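Worked Example 4.2. Read the sequence first, then its structure tokens.
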Amino acid sequence: MSIPVEDVAVPARVLELARGAALTPVWHNQDGGLTFRTDDGRHIKHTPRTLETSFAGEADRLEWAVAYTPVPRVLEHGGDDVHEWMVTASLPGISAVDPRMDAATAVREVGRGLRALHDALPVADCPFEWTVPRRIENAGIRGIHLPDALRDAPPVDRLVVCHGDACVPNTLIGDDGRWSGHVDLGALGVGDRWADIAVASMSTVWNYGEGWEDALIEAYGIQPDRERLAYYQELWNAT
């Protein structure tokens, strides 16, 4: 996943959804998913259908979470046999991996933002699940065979409503240098907080290089738990 640096072909459906607004590509991934920003305050996501998550599921999660924490407000979503799309109101801020961000600020705010997300979303009221058993079940549906060791998770430290894809690009940072919101919540659900922390920490290596993993965990406000970090990073990589 990355910020486009070359011209991007705009799908016909995106042009239709833009309704004449100017489009700027802001994100693409290896599966062909694209995200565009419009000049009238919207973001349009367009992606091939997959078995992993759906925009319908993400829309449900956003509509639930928006009452508690800064996430995009869904304006419309739909799909056909091949693709899905979703239009949301834009949030203030830029991605933590935007070239304008320095690593130290980004890592700090991703950690702080993740802790704020976990503290804000009410576990008891959350209708979605991202526990280890559910993730293992979903992997089986997708034909992924997991090593036996991954079927024996560490005891839960603290149940929270997890982001589900807490990689650092999915935190937004405002002009004041503070986190301003979260995006891409298609897998949001209840799980151990270390499931998110492990992924966020690991993703600092991909985006900023070695040496930032523990700084993110410190910004979150706890000490590293090496056993849980290792387990949830392996589970992420396997699924």
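Now turn to a second chain, presented in exactly the same format:
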Amino acid sequence: MAKAPFTYIPLTKEKDLDFLLEEIGDARIVMLGEGSHGTSEYYTWRTAITRRLVVEKGFGFVTVEGDWPECYALNRFIKGYEKSGSKIADVLQVYRRWPTWMWANWEVAALVEWMKDVNHIRNLQEKVGFYGLDVYSLWESLEQVVQFLNQQDGQAAEAARQALQCFEPYNRDPQHYAQATAFVPTDCEHEVVEMLQRITRNTNFPGDQEHGFNAEQNALVAVNAERYYRGMIKGGPSSWNIRDTHMMETLDRLLELHGPESKAIIWAHNTHIGDARATDMANDGMVNIGQLAREKYGNEQVKLVGFGTYQGSVIASKSWGAPMQKMDVPPARPGSWEAMLHEISDEDKIILSKDLSQVPELRKPLGHRAIGVVYDPKFEQYGNYVPSQIQDRYDAFVYLDESQAVHPLHLKHKSAKEPELYPWNY
């Protein structure tokens, strides 16, 4: 093993997280990454960190790289709202669209169980929430808006129905919609924007702020999803930037909803939470939520924690919409960040970026592994690595030398039809 050129803390038990909690300090926003969407230890260690942030530092909600409607169903269950379900496994059935394993897994079930238990002894204003940041749920969000407004505001409901009708010819197929509207002025942008304006202008939600917020958020998702799918067919960084800007807008809205003293935890892939300016994403004009949050709230108020592994197994698919598989993750590519950490020791460990700044070899970009929902180990040596200046990309890094695949609930899923629209699958 090589001599470590920087200080690190071995990670074997939850008490070892003291080192990380001290670094987080009084930050308002903590982002917890992952190097894949299918590794068990990423979920379990993020759960351990989340528990401590909630109990010891007063964090009030978790937001994840998931769709708003499905995550809000979990939020209702966790907070014990009426008719929100009685069994965790049943509630997790809301994750029916591929890739189901990201949130319909036993590791998430353990987090949900803990959050529900914590909330059981808290009053409504103190209950910990669970929300989705992503932008894929165009049709599901439109349907929820129509259902809500049918009971609240006939005029606004009509605007929502017109938006939904505009999308009907495309048969719930984003690829069909994007291709049909990319280069001709026949899209549904006007309809979804009008729907959002009607909701925010005319609808009153007395006594049920979160229920009203849910309707507004679904309308916002529809607006940004429509832009996202149209932008994707044109190529370039615009669709990625629409997606992460939407994530940031959702985070801002949730912080405002929960009040000036609120604190947020974000679970998302390293490619979203690690500052894009410290990677080659910046050369392509791409931004992400980690960068945007640092720019708005300042580095002291935003702490970014990356996660990675040297080898093990993972749940992923060979192509977009294909069945999930348990795959081997081979040893990290020589010269990469993960390989360097393995050479130092095969211990799991926590590294703080402030301890890396004086190491000359870390001032140049290193390859840093990124596994998405689509993965093939055969191509490991040719892709899946993002050139990164680690000390600038994160505030801390959790390294796991050998990790195991997440444990899915094996739900049947709605397949996705648009593989060529997703050059980035993180």
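Notes for the reader: Residues 135-236 form one domain. Residues 317 and 324 are 5 Å apart (CA to CA).
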